[in-house]
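C-alpha cells incoming
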C-alpha cells in the first residue's frame, strides 16, 4: 500500500544514538561491521526499499553525524536520509527525530537502528495495522513460562498467553506520537518504547505478530546470530518483490 496523496507521507525515524556498552566494543555497536557493512547500513537499506517510506531520519551520536551522512550517500540515498544528533536516552533521540520530520509527514515508522533483519512483510503488516487503528506495534507471544520475581523469590506466575515481547517497527499517526512525546516531556514520563507513551493517551495500540529473527543486536551472541542469518537469508530484500526507485 503506497499513499497516493503527496501531502500525506510516511517517514521512518531510526534511533541509533546509543553507545552499546553491553557489546563490549570500543565503538558504538550500530557502526560495527556485519558482513562488510555497518549494522546501521543494513537497517537503512531495509527501510529504503519500502515503497511507502518517503524518507528516513537517522538519529545518531553527535560525533557521528558526518559519518552517517556519508554512509547514506554511499548507499545511494543521500537525499532520502536526514541525519541528526540524538540525546542521552532513546526517548530523547526519538524526540529529536520527530522534530526533523517535514510538514508533509503524517505517519511515522520507528525502527531500531540495530534491528537489521526485519522482513519487508513485517513492515507492511505493522504499517497496515496502524493505518486502520492509528497506532500499531509488532511483538512475539511469549513461549516460555513467565514469572514475576523480587529479591530472588518468585512473586507470581503470569499467564503467558497474554505476554508479548515487543519489537520494532512501531507505526503511529504523527499527531498522536507528537502529543504523547509532548506530554512525556511535560510530566517527565519515561518509557523504553514509544507505544508506552501513546498508550498513556488512552489510545488503543494494535499488535501484529512479530518475527523471531527480528532481534535487537545487543550482545556478542546476537552479533554471531545476525551474521549467520544474513549469510543464509535470501539476498533480495525488496518488499514483496518490488524495489523502490531512488532519484
Amino acid at each position: 500500500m503506497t499513499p497516493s496523496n503527496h501531502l500525506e507521507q510516511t517517514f521512518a525515524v531510526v534511533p541509533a544514538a546509543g553507545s552499546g556498552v553491553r557489546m563490549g566494543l570500543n565503538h558504538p555497536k550500530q557502526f560495527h561491521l556485519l558482513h562488510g557493512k555497518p549494522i546501521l547500513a543494513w537497517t537503512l537499506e531495509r527501510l529504503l526499499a519500502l515503497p511507502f517510506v518517503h524518507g528516513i531520519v537517522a538519529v545518531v551520536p553527535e560525533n557521528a553525524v558526518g559519518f552517517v551522512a556519508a554512509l547514506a550517500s554511499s548507499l545511494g540515498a543521500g537525499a532520502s536520509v536526514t541525519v541528526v544528533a540524538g540525546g542521552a536516552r532513546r526517548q530523547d533521540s526519538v524526540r529529536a527525530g520527530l522534530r526533523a520530520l517535514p510538514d508533509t509527514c503524517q505517519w511515522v515508522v520507528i525502527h531500531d537502528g540495530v534491528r537489521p533483519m526485519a522482513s519487508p512483510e513485517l513492515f507492511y503488516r505493522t504499517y497496515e495495522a496502524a493505518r486502520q487503528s492509528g497506532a500499531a506495534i509488532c511483538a512475539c507471544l511469549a513461549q516460555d513460562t513467565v514469572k514475576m520475581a523480587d529479591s530472588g523469590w518468585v512473586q507470581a506466575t503470569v499467564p503467558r498467553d497474554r505476554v508479548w515481547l515487543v519489537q520494532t517497527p512501531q507505526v503511529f499517526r504523527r499527531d498522536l506520537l507528537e502529543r504523547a512525546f509532548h506530554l512525556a516531556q511535560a510530566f517527565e514520563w519515561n518509557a523504553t518504547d514509544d507505544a508506552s507513551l501513546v498508550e498513556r493517551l488512552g489510545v488503543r495500540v494494535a499488535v501484529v505478530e512479530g518475527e523471531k529473527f527480528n532481534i535487537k543486536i545487543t550482545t556478542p551472541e546476537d552479533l554471531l546470530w545476525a551474521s549467520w542469518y544474513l549469510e543464509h537469508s535470501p539476498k533480495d530484500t525488496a518488499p514483496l518483490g518490488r524495489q523502490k526507485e531512488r532519484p
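note: Residues 237-243 have pLDDT under 50 and may be disordered.
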